[in-house]
Structure formats: structure tokens, C-alpha cells
Automatic annotation (TrEMBL), chain A:
It holds the Pfam family Hpt. SUPFAM superfamilies: Histidine-containing phosphotransfer domain, HPT domain. This is Histidine-containing phosphotransfer protein. Residues 38-133 form the HPt domain. Its main location: cytoplasm. It comes from Rhamnella rubrinervis. GO terms for molecular function: histidine phosphotransfer kinase activity; protein histidine kinase binding. One of its GO terms (biological process) is cytokinin-activated signaling pathway. Histidine-containing phosphotransfer domain (HPt) contains an active histidine that mediates the phosphotransfer. PANTHER family: HISTIDINE-CONTAINING PHOSPHOTRANSFER PROTEIN 4, PHOSPHORELAY INTERMEDIATE PROTEIN YPD1. GO terms for cellular component: cytosol; nucleus.
TrEMBL record, chain B:
The modification 4-aspartylphosphate is found at residue 72. Residues 22-137 form the Response regulatory domain. The keyword Phosphoprotein applies. GO terms for biological process: phosphorelay signal transduction system. Signal peptide: none annotated. CDD domains: REC_hyHK_CKI1_RcsC-like. This is Response regulatory domain-containing protein. Keywords: Phosphoprotein. Gene3D superfamilies: 3.40.50.2300. Pfam families: Response_reg. It comes from the Eukaryota.
Amino acid sequence: MERNHLQRQIAVMRQSLFDQGLVDEQFVQLEELQDDANPNFVEEVATLYYRDSSRLIHNIDQALMKRPLDFHKLDSYMHQLKGSSSSIGAKKVNAECNQFREYCQIGSAEGCVRSFQQLKKEYGALKKKIEAYFQMVRQAGPDKTACSRN
Amino acid sequence: MDDHHQLINGVAGRNPETNKITALIVDDNMVNQTIHHRLLHSLGIENQVVGNGKEAIDVHCSGKIFDLILMDLDMPVMNGIEATRKLRAMGIRNTIVGVSSRSVNEHIQEFVEAGLDDYQEKPLTISKLLSILRKVRNQAEL
């Protein structure tokens, strides 16, 4: 009974990731790559993403402190962040990456700073939710992910 | 899934022992390396991963050949444009597909003209990969 309740909670949590626009179809693509031999693939990729992207976010933070801003460098960092964000299906983070790059194109320092603040917010929100989700999945044990076509 | 297997098995593989299609993933991003490796593996495609264009050249110089090369564009040391040009100059005629998060209208013409057979915008999905494999198959039949 308790296990069923946990499974329902996992399903609800998973659905909210989509309903809140935090992840998109690409997340489902990753789930479909999980099997008995790779039961935690999505969590492994997410962990890799947060490790890799935290370095990029730090670099962008540093670059945004310099004056004048090097928009080319900023765009390059953001292109990398966008690449991995879109690959794990981080929908809102990806949208903010695009917004930031638009501000780089027009050379708007204020726009870059503002959109980066928003990006970090979305990034943090996703991280919190997704870590909680995977924690619950781990609690449920093997074969208890709520993977289903959305 | 039967159609998928037919598509994969229909291509003459470079590995005579396993008769599997072989692929080289050229990408500096670890997240994408991991995902693309798993994607290809899930379709039964033997694959190797390198981190930039120069490593792709080196692995070919060591004598390895691949049915399919998934080439990222923006990489350190040697980018995808230069690597593609060099591979074509070396006489590599196998399928090279550009895979980047740049959209089609974001100056990828130079990349295409370097010698790509196809271009796919990231993220790669199963359906994009199957479309790529059809090209590999068509090329093998020519």
C-alpha cells in the first residue's frame, strides 16, 4: 500500500515537471533510454549536467563582472550551456539561454545581466525539483520510475 | 521497433565480427557525449566517443573507419568544419552528419559545405537518428 502511494507520488511529481514547463519532450527521450542495464540513466545524465553547467555558470558570472562585456565570449559560454540544457530537456533554462543570446547579439549589457539572473533562478528551481524527484525514485527502488509517455 | 532493426541491419557494417554499424561521436560536451553514446547503443550501433575534431582525425589516422560520424560544430582544438574538411581531404567518404545546437539559419552553411551529408539540430532524438541511418543505408547501397 505504502509502495503504491510512493509510486503515485512519483508519478505526480514527474507530471508536475512537465506541467510547470520545467522539462520537455527531450526528458521523455532520456527516460526511454533507461532499461534494466541502465536503470538510473536519467539521473546520471542530470548529475553530469549539473556538474558541467555549474562550471559554465561560474564562468558567465565572472565574465559579467568585467567591463566592457565581451559579448562574443558570453555568447560562446551560453551556447555551451544551451547545448546541454536542451539535451536534457531543461525547457525553461533553454528558453533563458536563448533570451540571453539575443541580448548578446544586440550588445545589451543590462539585458544580459537581467536574463542571467532569471536563468539562474530557473536553473536552481529545476535542480531542486529534479533532485527531489530522483530522491523519491531511489526510495522506491528499481523498476519503480513513473516513466510513461506524457 | 522491427522497422528500426531492419533499418540498422540493412546497412553493411564495418565490423565483420559483429556485423554492426559503427559510429564515431565527435563532441566536446560530456552531457551530449553520454546521451549520444546511449542513443546509438540502444539502436545496436557500436560507437566510440572523441572530444574534438583533432581526436577524430587521429582516430582515423590510426586506421579506424566508421559508417557514421556525428560531428559537433563548436569544439576546442579543432572545430567541426575543419575536421570535416580534413576527413574529406583524407578520402573519408562515409556519412558525416553535423550535429549542433545551432539552428539551420545560424551560419551553418560553411559547415555543410565542408562536406556534410546531413545536418541535424540538437538535441538528437531516436527519430532524427533513424533519419540519419536511412542516409547511411542509402549511401551503402550506392
